[in-house]
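Quick one: structure tokens for this chain, please?
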Amino acid sequence: MRGHQPAMRPPYPPPPERSAELRRRFAEEARSERPDLSALCLLVGAEADGALDEAGIDAAQVELDRLAGLLPYRPGGPREWAVALRELLGDRMGFHGTPADYRRLESSLLHEVLVRRRGLPILLSVVWMEVARRAGAPVYGVALPGHFVVGFGPEEGQVLADPFDGGRVLSGPDAELLVAGATGAQLDAAMLRPADPLDVVLRILNNVRAWAAARPERSDVALWAVELSLLLPSHPARLRYERARLLVQRGDFLGGALELEAYAEVVEVVDEAAAERVRGEALAARAMLN
């Protein structure tokens, strides 16, 4: 496979049959009663990286189990759990992030993060959550604007930690500074609620799309990230429009035009002017067929 794509930089996508199977499993897991966050993240990784086979997926799950086995048995309350995770994953194992990690697609792929011990805040948080969950910790993700962290314990005694900073346990002012630095906004109590696993996966895929948007030559990555997002039970309707434009960009003018026309019908109910603009894009796409 790699020999046929000399212009494409790694990671290389899987062949169509493998991709179809991965997407079927991704949709099935996303619609299950209790979606498994690590399984979904590893299926995203396999869609991105054709080198990640079933043995590699299993090895990543085994590594998460191994790390959980290294934690002390029930160290205490939320703060003790946060400190134990920091000492193991941050101090001993060296998991943390750097500004350079934002420039790498691998920073959004769980199997790569487990090997490199580097990643985006949200992927490092997935490692923290999955290791802690396996050990019985009261852990969850906290989707602060612009910076994902992890939380331990109930709302009234919540302890936050920042895996990107090696698991540093945050004080109240620390969290306020993170939010202010990322958005200029004030910290709101609603920002501290546990993140739903499917919202975590959608945010990871949004990061992948943002990475690809800055690299027009990797529209292949943008397309699979959009298509996986569309398999989630709840997703922004505008993703259909984004997929249609990507199809046109990649030379599938008829497929893109059909998608644009279908999206225009949906939008027309709330915004006739926007629907007309989208129909104009569909006409332009069809004209490229001539």
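Residues 264 and 277 are 8 Å apart (CA to CA).
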